[in-house]
Amino acid sequence: MSASRHILIVDDDPEIRTLLRRYLEGQGFRVSTAADRRECEARVADGNPDLIVLDVMLPDGSGLDICRSLHERRPELRVILLTALKEDVDRIIGLELGADDYLGKPFNPRELVARIKAVLRRSGGDEAPAPEPRIYGFAGFEVDPGQRRVLAADGSEIELTGAEFDLLRVFLERPGRLLSRDQLLDLTQGRDRDPLDRSIDVLMSRLRRKLAERHDAPIFRTVRNGGYQMAVPVTSQGVAAP
């Protein structure tokens, strides 16, 4: 399944690079490594990876800056951040800059592989049977999951990060259903929620802002101690095969 997927590991610790390379290759991935930002940029340009496992702390720059730059230039490139810092702010900033997931050090390589597969699966990067193509509509917006594109009523495109789009898609596929933060985290990132994890709340806030949600016309409803649900009708229609 993952034989053709190319993973780039960016970490200044040679032991971590060696460990992850051996483990991921054992799982069937094609793996490249980089020790700093300069090598990362070269590997991205030459190797065209499908996903980057990116350490936040690098000797010649911040992984967060790299994440921002990559999202601007290569929005289709998936990023999982590694951080030894426990502060929630680093996770939040990473998601805001376009990261698809994050993992704190120390971590189990098996969990990293599970995160990689989940991110690739959400972005169409595995070989699972493709669902029937559909176009969704809500509150004047049109969403094409196949193109990962959101259009406003005036035809302009709404720029969403990978994590923001995945969250929106969960609601579109479950219109009107109340979803807890734990459910949303599991459905979008394939993992359980840490009690202090605010990533879903941050993504919801950013999604609401980008969709220009108004207080008098909410798109999403926040249910205290319950979670979130879509507050407007959702339409869907099949897409004819070419």
Would you mind describing this structure in some detail?
The two termini are 26 Å apart. This protein has a 5-stranded parallel β-sheet, with helices on both faces. The chain has a 5-stranded antiparallel β-sheet with strand order 11-10-9-8-14, with no helix packed on it. A two-stranded antiparallel ribbon has the order 4-5. The protein is elongated. The chain is an alpha/beta fold and 242 residues long. Helix 6 (162-173) packs across helix 7 (181-189). The protein has 2 domains: 6-122, Response regulator (Rossmann fold, 3-Layer(aba) Sandwich), CATH 3.40.50; 134-238, Winged helix-like DNA-binding domain superfamily/Winged helix DNA-binding domain (Arc Repressor Mutant, subunit A, Orthogonal Bundle). The chain is 38% helix and 23% strand.
TL;DR of this structure?
With 242 residues, the chain is an alpha/beta fold. It has helices at 14-26, 37-47, 63-73, 88-96, 109-122, 162-173, 181-189, 199-210, and strands spanning 6-10, 30-34, 51-55, 57-58, 61-62, 78-83, 101-104, 134-138, 141-144, 149-151, 157-158, 220-223, 227-230, 235-238. The chain is 38% helix and 23% strand.
